[in-house]
C-alpha cells in the first residue's frame, strides 16, 4: 500500500488489500490492439475526488492530470504547459493548454481547474488532505491560474501529477453521483459502460478526439483477480497482457518461464510502525532505548530470506532510495544483536521485558511473519500477542479507537521527502498520538520551505534522527515483479507500485 495518511486514507488502502471479492474475466486479448492489465485491487468509485494512488490507472485512462509524471519521477507538461513558484514558494502559477475540451464540448480552462481543486479538497477522498494547505485558487484568465498556499509544499507538483491533479468536467458536478460510474474527463480513453462490469472488468476505448499523443493501444481493459495464482495463469495463457506480482512464490514461479517477461522494482517497505512513542498504551515504548532494543531484536536478514526469499533489501529506515533523505548506511544501522537488545531493556528498567499487543490482518501479516516477529521478541524477553482483525474492524480499532501501540504495515516509499515526512512524522494516522521532539520541530520547517541543499540536508538529518531514536521498526524493502505475456514492454513508475498507463508499449 502506498501514500496513505489520515484515517480516511488508511481505510481506502486497507480496502484495496482486504475487500477483494469478485471473479476475473477470462476472454483472450488480441496482442497489439488491446492492452489487458490484471489487478488485485480496484476503486470503489471512478469519481476523481475519490482517487488514490493505488488505483490511479483506472483514472488516468479517462482523465488527464495537470502535470504528467514521467517514469523517473520528473514532471512534464500535460494540461498545464508551464508552472512556476513565486520567491516564497506559496504561489504556484500555471499556464494551461488552450485546445482541450471535454466530451460535451465544454472547454477545459482555468475555471475548470479551480472547480476541480476546490472539489478535491472538500470531497473527503483518501488524499484530500494533500490540498489542506491550498487557501485559494485565483483565475486570471482562461489559460492562467494561481494556486495560493498557506505554507510552501514541496510535494505540490507531485500532487498535481497524481489524484489531486485529475481534471473532470465541472458540468458533471451537478449530476449527483454520476462520476462514480461514468467518468467525464479529457483523457486518452473513454469508459465503455456496455462492456464494463464494475468489480470485475473495466473496458476503455481510445478517445478519437484526444488532444494529445495517441497511446499505442486502441483499447484498454483492467480486470480484477482475487489471487496472484489466477493472474499468473492468465499471463501464461495470454488472457492477460500485464500485471504486478507481489508474492515471492509467484514471482519465482514465472521467472523461469520463457513465455513471461519480467521487470523488477523495489518499492514498498514492510515493518512495524510504532505509534505509541509517548508510552500512552505501552509505557516501555516511551524510552528510546526500548525502541532501539526492539530494532536490535529483529533478525531482518533471516526474515527477508524466509518470508520474502531474499526478494528485497533489509532496511532500518523509512526513507526510500529515491528520496534525498535516504542514506544507504542506515539500511544496516541495526544489527541483529539480542544481547545488546537485552542490555538496552535492562538499562531502560525492563530487565524482564514487557508485553505488547499488536493487531494482525492476515493479508498483511502471514503466519510466517507473525511467528518470526514473536520469536525474535521473545528471545529478548518481550512478549508479543497478536489480535486478529478483519479489514473493517481494523480501521475502527486501530485508527479510531487507537487501541494499539503499533501495527505491521506495507508502506509505499514515495520519491518526495515531504510526503514521507507528512505521512509518517507529522500528526496524522501514522503518528496518531502526535509524537514530536525538538529535533523534529527544528527540521520539518527546513524540509518544507528550505532551498534545495538545505532541504536535502534537513531530510538526511531527520532520517538519521528517526533511525537512531527508534521511531519505527522497518524490516525490509520488498521487490515487486512486473510481468507480461511477452507482447508488452513495461516501464516501472517512480513512487508508485503500479505503472502509469503511459508506461506500457508493444514489445520489440
Kindly describe this structure:
This protein has 508 residues and is of the alpha+beta class. It contains 14 helices and 19 strands. The N terminus is likely disordered.
Q: What is the overall shape?
A: globular
Poorly predicted sequence stretches spanning 5 or more consecutive residues: 1-13, 15-31
Distance between the termini: 32 Å
- Number of E-type strands: 19
By DSSP (H or I, 4+ residues per run), the number of helices equals 14
How is the main sheet built? 5 strands, antiparallel
Q: State mean pLDDT (0 to 100 scale).
A: 91
* Rg, nearest Å: 23 Å
Return the structural class.
Answer: alpha+beta
Helix content: 25-40%
Beta percentage is: 15-25%
In short:
The protein is α+β, with helices and mostly antiparallel strands and 508 residues long. The protein has helices at residues 6-18, 56-60, 110-122, 156-160, 228-237, 248-255, 288-297, 300-307, 338-347, 367-378, 391-400, 417-424, 438-449, 452-468; strands at residues 34-39, 67-69, 75-77, 80-85, 91-96, 134-141, 144-149, 189-191, 201-206, 219-224, 242-245, 261-274, 312-314, 355-360, 383-388, 406-411, 473-484, 488-490, 504-506. The strands form six sheets. Strands 11, 12, 13, 16 and 17 form a five-stranded antiparallel beta sheet that branches. A four-stranded mixed beta sheet has the order 1-10-9-8, with no helix packed on it.
